[in-house]
Amino acid sequence: MAVHELKCWSEYYYEIFMGLKEFEVRKNDRNYQKYDTLILQEYDPETEQYTGQQMARRVTYILYGGQFGIEEGYCVMSIK
Hints:
Radius of gyration: 13 Å
Low-confidence stretches: none
Number of strands: 5
Mean pLDDT: 97
Largest sheet: 5 strands, mixed
Order of helices and strands: EHEEEE
Strand content: over 45%
């Protein structure tokens, strides 16, 4: 189980924080695996700065690309 520190734009950070967005779509350049931990660090793309807020989410399921319309090299992760 790995820990991944990831940039998360403010609008999506809020949706995840509120429990409304329970998935992440990412380029699979880190070999994401079930049960990995994502440390999501809030990032404001307008100011191009981190806000200092962060949260941890656990990967509970991964759908790898190359199928179901997901581009090869990407993945959709269910997070809790």
